[in-house]
Each structure stands twice: as structure tokens, then as C-alpha cells.
Amino acid sequence: MPTTTWNRHHVLSLADFTTAEYDTVLQTAASFQEVLSRRTKKVPTLQGQVVANLFFESSTRTRSSFEIAAKRLSADTLNFAAATSSMTKGETILDTAKTYLAMGTDIMVIRHREAGVPNAIAAEMDRLGVRVSVLNAGDGQHEHPSQALLDLFTICTLIDPANPRLELLKGKKIAIVGDILHSRVARSNIWSLIASGAQVHLAAPPTLLPKLFAEYFSEEPRARSQELLAISPSSPPAPPASPAPSSSSSPTPQLFLHWQLEPALQDADFVMTLRLQKERMTAHLLPSLREYHQLFGITRTKLQLCKPNVKVLHPGPVNRGVEISSDLMDDPEFSLIQSQVTSGVAVRMALLYLLGSGKA
Amino acid sequence: MPTTTWNRHHVLSLADFTTAEYDTVLQTAASFQEVLSRRTKKVPTLQGQVVANLFFESSTRTRSSFEIAAKRLSADTLNFAAATSSMTKGETILDTAKTYLAMGTDIMVIRHREAGVPNAIAAEMDRLGVRVSVLNAGDGQHEHPSQALLDLFTICTLIDPANPRLELLKGKKIAIVGDILHSRVARSNIWSLIASGAQVHLAAPPTLLPKLFAEYFSEEPRARSQELLAISPSSPPAPPASPAPSSSSSPTPQLFLHWQLEPALQDADFVMTLRLQKERMTAHLLPSLREYHQLFGITRTKLQLCKPNVKVLHPGPVNRGVEISSDLMDDPEFSLIQSQVTSGVAVRMALLYLLGSGKA
Amino acid sequence: MPTTTWNRHHVLSLADFTTAEYDTVLQTAASFQEVLSRRTKKVPTLQGQVVANLFFESSTRTRSSFEIAAKRLSADTLNFAAATSSMTKGETILDTAKTYLAMGTDIMVIRHREAGVPNAIAAEMDRLGVRVSVLNAGDGQHEHPSQALLDLFTICTLIDPANPRLELLKGKKIAIVGDILHSRVARSNIWSLIASGAQVHLAAPPTLLPKLFAEYFSEEPRARSQELLAISPSSPPAPPASPAPSSSSSPTPQLFLHWQLEPALQDADFVMTLRLQKERMTAHLLPSLREYHQLFGITRTKLQLCKPNVKVLHPGPVNRGVEISSDLMDDPEFSLIQSQVTSGVAVRMALLYLLGSGKA
């Protein structure tokens, strides 16, 4: 493992992640990726530690990824699925978490449909002065940091497999397309991509990308100035603002909003698509999946606007023929989707390792 | 591990537990508590053995506690949850148990909503002459021995951490408050507390504590004489009968029934509260949770009747503000609730160890 | 482990199994049966490998058997139960399988209510050129090879515990009784029994055993000639055709169809009963369970038609008093049911070992 300074007890959000922290995760994940290519894919690092997957909102995919990561580190795992659980009857979520704490859990991986639950549990653990780590596995429409970190790892290892690091994305144009308003994946990705110096172009129908959305990222901890943000007029489509030369007094805009797909795709290096919840239609935020696909679905034709080597990401599961055309999804020349899943195990091993190895 | 004589193949009830058996469990749990404080919390004791958690009635909390205990002993675990199972279609519960037997299960941890199921399975295993152990993890309104043993361990280690043993409770006054009639936890606790020589004061509304309740404990195996029992008149509240000097010809009363809370709390050393099932209200056994809390809920004010160092227990999950006031539950000066959960893992390790280590 | 040549990447069907392959499974299972009789029942063979139980159709019994087999080989296991899963929302089953592939799964154990799903997944894995193995744990009304192999192992070890092999069944008369039309267990068993040279007598009501059924086995890969098949007239019951001397030009009939129970039982060495799905009645394929039991249920009296040492098998769970009378099911003189469950773990260890040990 790379020697690093890692002082974080919890991974709840990427809003305050430092470049050093991103690089530590990327490099640690790279060494685990190497472990995963060996015949024996298991290391004894977390032997005797207990990783509890507390999934108040069910997600087989993410839970399996964390479970396999924990097992490859030789940790013992406990699975809690709210759907089939008799817990939480009358007690609060903090009570449930404290029960798992008292049983000797070392790391809690938490998913909840309400934003802020992992933060609240982490705050309570800190208040109690215990060494338990909390890892946010997706909370409401807030964040999903391990997903954004695996996206980052997937892209960076594509660019430089031997030495993935944040600065590799500097100046890259990355489009994020889809239901941005409701997406915790988008929020976490925006933090990491802005931190990397990439140009982040958001594209969605206005109902899924309100103009005010961007303010969230200027009001947050780092107090970014509004100049980070540029908004593309909806019609006619404009090319993205060409970045002004960087200077300390006037930062380059990094976050661009588009209500049409084309300006976001124009010359893009990477296209991140987001899962569309079908519930959005019943809420009248979308006319139809068919129309959505016509306007914002990624197809081979639309990709011709991008850089020649453009790659497409999706956090999965994909609604085939909605966010991405079915043939494109299966085309390894363009799709990084399988690679993201594989990266997920390495990145989650890295996070569990970084959180768990300090528990001596 | 302490050297002990332990000849029990199953743990089904505490009704016939001997003092030596209680002490063996307490001392074995104490040594596992020590293991749990080490950096590597795992021992290879049950490597290769299979512990099947057969939870015909779901309970995430108890199942997780047994699962973590089994994993810390290096056993392999199988989880069976009736809710999501396709088994038991057409076959009997004994057939299901025999299937797990035939697969090579060494210890079956069984929860069922009907009293007597673990006993029936254990009897069948004995009839077949196999070395499988059955551990009752709660059967109907009958018993929940591992819960009572962890309560006992929690109290005894508080009194003497280095040497927890049954006699530490001799003469202590312990109140059990709540839905005693329907509680398997209360029944198991009454057996262990009477065996310890403690004074056990039950307090509940008459609908949840019929006068006949106490007869159960005089008719059971040890054939206790009726003199063990004293009944406090409902109104006006009377102080608990002061124990007469112990003599071999006339045993001191040990079990006291109260239909008001105050006489049970008066000078109590420990207060065990029980979970109130909200179904009791729909069955008209209770007027309202609010009134229940007013009359039988434990609050800071009511605790002033007890000994100054009184501690409160609850098997969890707590209905906050019903059985216990919310602030009291979180006050480490009074609440042993977290400590009970931690004790649970050590005590269940002890039970699995004692049952499993004879399987050579 | 016996030294063998095993070149199969997947176990999907027994239709094309060779005698050498059957014998390899039987001998490997026999060595694991020996491991299971040791004090430490675990071997490190598959350490670091991941076995994913992808049960799109739930089956606690079969899943537990595979899980315990995998754990005894020291593999890590992942359980996926469609019923409680949020996966497969919008994605195809192949997408789900590819996700588990990308996470690093080595062996996928798949059950699905549709015939052909494991084959489709295996074909996709082969197309991708990956070394993942697929094991069919029951697909629709197609096949359930591990069940038929454990039935075979149970019978062969009964005849020659030290050296179970396919040829032991040559010339034996084996009756398969029950809902043959809808049974994947029957189909897999028919392949292995025909391969062994046994005489296979099917008995069921005409609604559960159409005359055309047998054609399936003549049209399949080995292109058996119609002469393999003999059909017994429904009334009056005829004795089974006595096998003609074997010759290369005219093979002995091996598959016999009966619409009454008696000719199938006459002089049978083994009776395989099948689980009756109660849904068959609502589909008017059966008049009543009572009548079914009267006509096709196996009882002590009816067994008198068989060879004196006849044994009865059932894949479980049994509908007591329907397929088999309750007392017969529990009589170890006749019933092999418990033995089948135990064999199941050894046979599944053998299959996982044979598939997994080539993954160096």
C-alpha cells in the first residue's frame, strides 16, 4: 500500500475532499486493483473487523460491491436490509446504529433514502467518542461518494493506468447528462470533477436541472465564487464558454448548465449518464421515456459531437434504450460501464482499508 | 477459557439451570469479553463448524448478535429467514430442521413465534441420536434464555467485572416492569434471578400481569413452594414485603407482584423494562401508550424511589417515551442498554462455545 | 482428490454428460464426503474465490446447500435473492449477470423460473471470453443437474460406498413417480439414469405425463433412437417390456411410460418421487391431493410390489401424505431423503471444486 496521511474517520461527502485525499484513494485503489488480478484475491488487512452494511434503502448492486470488497479484505460482514428487518420499530435510526456499534461494528456502510442520515450517525459516533467509521453509500439526493470515486478511478486509470491521480482530469470536458436534480451521484461527481480542474457540463431538461441548482456548489464549504459557473442559453445552443486563461484573481468557469444535450457533448472527453427514475414521469417532470431518449439519450450518432475517443459512463442499472441506446451500452469501444463495476470493488476496498486500518 | 464441566447439549430454557451452569456461562462470557477488547477479536474455536440461524420469526437484532458471535468464533453461518423463504411449504418445522441437520449444521439457533418449537426440535435431534445443539433464541411467550443470560452478565460484570457470578445478585432488589404476561424475556429472567437469590418485583397493569402468572414458576421443574411468592395489594401501594430471615424450613419470598409501579421501584437496585408490543393496545389490554407511560414508564423522577446507583435495562428495541423516557435511555449514568447489546455478543459466544466445543 | 480430466466450464444440463464426467463427479463427491466426516470439515481449495448464488427464483434449501458447500471450500459467497432485490429494474438478466462478473465473481450458481436462463448467461460469458463458470441450480421445467447428480451419488454410494460409479446402475429398475411433465428434477434424472444403463419407468396421471414427453429425450443431442422408448398401455397395466439382449444395431428400450403406478413399481430397485406443486390442482391437472395420493402416493403397501430392498427418494420439500405417506418418509429402512440432503453438500462441493479449481 502507498504510504499516505489519511486522517478522515468517515466518508460522507466529497465536498471537502482535498487533492491529497483523492490521490490517496486513487493510489490505494490501484494497489488493490493489482491484488484483484492475482490468483488469490484476498488480503488479511481487516481480519477480525466487522463491516455492517446498513441498507435502510435496498440496493443489491452497491451492497454486493461493498460486501465483496469487505470479504476480500478478510473482514466479517453483517447485512441489514430494512425491507426485511423487524428493527427500527419504535426506535430511531440512531438507536439502530448504536446497537450495531455496541455489537462491535468497526465500519458502518449506510444507505438511506433521506439525505443526511449517514452524517447524523457519524456525528453521533463522534459525540460518543468511539472509533467507528461511517461510509455513506448513498443518502437521498445528497451524495454517493464511493460511486463518484469509482467513476474518478475508472477515468483516471484509463488515462494513466500506472499512476491514477486527480490532475489527469485538468482541462478535460466532462458532460453529465440526465436527472441531475435528483441525483446524489451527480452531486458527488461534480465535487470531484471541479476539484480536478475539469470542465463540467450538465445537460438535462429544465425540470431536472433548475437554474438554481448550481448555487448549491457555490454556497458549500469551499465557498466557490459564482465565476465558477457559466450558464448556456437554452436556445439556440451555444458552444461552451471557452475557458479564460487561469489566474488567481479570476477563476475559470468550471460548471456549465445546458438545457439541451448538444452543447454539453460538443468535444466532450467523457459523458456521464445518470439513471432515470421512472417515477419522474408520474410526477410530470418528463413527458415520456421515448421523448427523453430522443432529446437526452446517448446514441452512437450523438456521440459524434464528442472527442473521437469519448467514453460513456453510467452508475447502473441502466434503463436500456432510455439513458443510452442498447447497442452503445454493450460496445466496449465506448462504454466504461463494466469497468466501473470492477473499479467499484477496488475503490471500496481502498475506502474500507483507509478507514479500517487506523483502528489498531 | 475457564475449565468447566458443561454437559448440556441444548439451551432451551433457564428453568433447570444450575448455579454452576450460570457461573460457567458468566465466566466464559467474561473471557470472551476480554477477547473482544483485543485488536484481533477473532478466535479459531469453531472453525469448520456451521451455525444455522433459523429465524422463523424475524429479528434482525438477535440474528445479527448471534451471527457476529459465531463469526468471531470462526464458525460458518447460514441465515434462514422464514419471511423470505420458500421452505416450510408442505413440510413440517421438524422436516426443515432435519434438512439443516442433514446438510451438516452443528448448532441451530432457533426463533419461532410459537412456544416450544426449539424444545420439539431438540427432542427430535436427541431421538435421532445426533450431536446437534439447539439454542432457543426466543419462542413465543415461553423463554429467551440468551437474553436473560446477557442481562445477568451485564448486571454481574457491573458489580464485579473481574469475577461475575450468580451469587452477586443475592438479596438485590430487581424490578421487572411492563408487559410481563406476553414476555419470554421476563420468564427467562425470572428463572435466573430467583436462582441468584435476588428479590424479583414484577410491576404491570393487571391486564399484563394476571395474579395466576406467578403459579407458573411454582409448578415448574424445581417445584418451588408457594412461599416464594408474595403479592402486593393493588391499592393502596404497599412497600414490598421485607424478606424474612432465611431458613431452610421456610424460604424467603422472592417473587412479588405489583399492579402499581412505585412499590416495585422502591429501593430497587436494577429496573428491567420490557418492550411493549403496540398490538397490545388494539387488543384492548392497554388504554393508550400515553397513559401506559404515565403509569409504568420509567422516568428520571420515578427513579428517585430506587437506590441511588440504580441502573435500567431494556432488551431493545425501545419505544422511546413509552417504556423509558427518551433522555433517561440515553443517560449512561442510568442506562445499561448499550452495555446489554455488547454483553450479548460475549454471552452468545460463550453459549456457542460451550455447545460447540464438545463436538470433537 | 482423484486425478481427472474435466474440461467443462459450466454445468447446465446432463443431456451431454459423458460417463467419465459422471464418474468424476461421483468420485470427487466421495472424497468430499470423507472430508465432511472429519473433525474439521473445511478445505482451503477455493480460498479467495467468489461464488455468487443468483437465485432469481427463491429456494432456501438449494441455496443453503450451495452456500455451505462453497464455505466448506473456503470460498466467499454472495447471495442475491430476486424477491428482495432492487436489481433487474430496467436491466436485463444478462446485465445483472455481467455486473456480478465485473465484481469478480468466479462461479455463478443460477436459479430462474424460466428455462434456459443459465444457458443464456453461460453463452454470454463464453462470448465475452471470461473464465466464469455457470452452474444451473434449476431453470424452469428444463433441468436441475446438481439435484440429479446428488440423487445418483446417493444411490451409487448405497450400492458401493467405496467406489461409486455410473455403471453400478446398469440394469437396475428405477421408477420416477409424480409430476413429471413440469419437473426439471425428472428431466435431469432421466438423462443420468439412461446414461447409466438403468431401466427408467415413469409413472404419472396422463395430464402430468403426456405421451409426447418421451420424444424430448430422443430429439436431444445424442439423438437416441426411438427404440429406447417403450410405452405401457394405460389399461390393463402391463409388466414392463423385458429388455432384449443388448446389441449395437438394436438398443434395449430404457425409458418406459406408465399412466398407472403399479407397473412402474413392479420389481423396482429405487423409487424417485417428485414434489407436487399444489398449483397443479388449480390448473385442473389433478382432481385432488387426496385422489393423487390414493393413485400415485407411495405407501408401505404399494412398496411391496418392488424389490425387497427398495429405497425411496424425494428432492424435498415433501408434501407429507401426498407424494409419500408420512410414516414411510421417516422410515430409514426405506427413505433416502436425509441421505440425499447430505449427499447434496458433497456433490455441490465436487461441482464447485471441478469448476473452480481450473481458475488458476
List keywords for this structure.
homotrimer; 360 residues; alpha/beta; Rossmann fold; 2 domains; six-stranded parallel sheet; 13 helices
List the helices and strands and how they pair.
The structure is a homotrimer of 360-residue chains.
Chain A: H1 19-36, E1 50-55, H2 60-72, E2 76-81, H3 93-102, E3 107-112, H4 117-128, E4 133-139, H5 145-159, E5 173-177, H6 184-196, E6 199-203, H7 215-219, E7 229-231, E8 255-258, H8 262-265, E9 270-273, H9 279-282, H10 289-296, H11 300-303, E10 311-313, H12 326-329, H13 337-356
Helix pairs in contact in A: 1-5, 1-13, 2-13, 3-4, 5-6, 5-13
Question: Could you walk me through the main structural features you see in this protein, from its secondary elements to its overall organization?
Answer:
The structure is a homotrimer of 360-residue chains. The first copy, chain A, has 13 helices and ten strands. With 360 residues, chain A is of the alpha/beta class. Chain A folds into two domains: 19-144 and 343-356, Rossmann fold, CATH 3.40.50; 146-340, 3-Layer(aba) Sandwich (Rossmann fold), CATH 3.40.50. Chain A has helices at residues 19-36, 60-72, 93-102, 117-128, 145-159, 184-196, 215-219, 262-265, 279-282, 289-296, 300-303, 326-329, 337-356; strands at 50-55, 76-81, 107-112, 133-139, 173-177, 199-203, 229-231, 255-258, 270-273, 311-313. In chain A, strand 5 (173-177), helix 6 (184-196) and strand 6 form a beta-alpha-beta unit. In chain A, helix 1 (19-36) crosses helix 5 (145-159). Chains in contact: A-B, A-C, B-C. The interface between A and B is medium-sized, with 27 and 33 residues.
